From TrEMBL:
Stored PROSITE patterns: S_R_A_B_BARREL
InterPro entries per UniProt: Dabb, Dimeric_a/b-barrel
SUPFAM superfamilies documented for this protein: Dimeric alpha+beta barrel
Pfam families with a match to the protein in the record: Dabb
Identification of the protein by name: Stress-response A/B barrel domain-containing protein
Ranges for domain Stress-response A/B barrel: 10-106
Domain of life: Eukaryota
Length: 110
């Protein structure tokens, strides 16, 4: 029997630059909503999520909200980007408030 290697989960890091404190608070509240409401085929599909204000540090280059989400597969992450209603609601809140955003994703070697 041929075994297909199982992919490691997809780890996604998103960093936002959001100048106004009240906008940062609104975005983080929307992440709380997303964590409770993001579903695919009627079931939760995000394996884990963490979001918060970044600690002040010159190394963060002004990115002041940090988010980490974990998906079982690239397919799930692509669903998140293109179809997830909870993510669309988050983008509606974050889009106008953000000055910049950076997103990267990877499979951990650990």
């Amino acid at each position: 029997m041929l075994r297909v290697p199982k992919m490691a989960p997809i780890e996604r890091i998103t960093l936002f630059k959001v100048p106004k404190a009240e906008d940062r608070a609104r975005i983080l509240e929307q992440y709380k909503v997303l964590a409770k409401t993001a579903v695919k085929d009627g079931k939760p599909y995000i394996l884990s999520a963490a979001a918060g204000e970044s600690f002040p540090d010159p190394r963060n280059r002004g990115f002041n909200i940090s988010v980490k989400t974990t998906f079982a597969s690239m397919e799930d992450m692509e669903y998140y980007d293109k179809e997830c209603e909870a993510h669309k609601a988050l983008k509606a809140v974050a889009g106008p408030a953000k000055e910049d955003v950076l997103t990267t994703y990877f499979e951990s070697v650990l």
